[in-house]
Amino acid sequence: MKVFQPQKRYRLHPGYIAWILHRVTGILLGLYLFLHIWVIHYLAQGEQAFNEVMGVVQSPLFLILEVGLLGTVVYHGVNGLRVILVDYGNMAKRDIFRKAVYVTFALCAAIIIAGGIPMLMHAFSH
Amino acid sequence: MKYFGSGRSGAFDWFFQRISGIVLLVTLFLHFYVMHFAIDGPITYEKVMVRLASPGWKALDIVFLVFAIYHAINGFKLIIDDYVHSTVLRAVIVGLLWVVGISFLVIGIMTIVNLKVQS
Fold this sequence. Notes:
The structure holds 2 protein chains of 2 kinds.
Chain A: H1 14-40, H2 47-57, H3 60-88, H4 94-124
Chain B: H1 11-38, H2 45-52, H3 55-83, H4 87-113
């Protein structure tokens, strides 16, 4: 099959960075989902098995890693909404597109900081 | 081989990725609220089972699971569309995605269905 290679390489403009991050967070979330289903399947193995595995994934190390999960989910969700608004709303307009990307980044940062600080405080209070 | 090649338009995959994404935003927010705000302290078997004793929650969790796995597998497939152009390699990888997706769907549904709830 003939594949058309791009004539030019894209510069690292905000929309491109948003796309890369969406792809990377998507892959991470996909891998996390399968890990999550595997961990939670111990629920059907009874109380002892489930509490044992939950003890591991609720240790301070995992609680810190969970902040990363929060960031990954929040970015993929908020940017996903932006992508839908590019497709069906007016965010593809030249003068709005770049601003929408910056608003997405800012909104994500605010949510991650607001959620991450209490999570870290909880993790370190153990 | 047409199904695994680039012969399909992929319009449904593209469109339903947006629909399932919106569904997941709602269900994931609910999931997050229930697991981290409605439940106090570390999550234990007992606390989870209180909620999962209700058939409504079980049904909702299965819907959530189906949408999450669909969105993840379809997302991986959309990435394959971008980078893998050989028909044979595509068939292998997309076939593998089907196997992984269905396996985890079965594991997830079996977990929810097989719970030994004391009521």
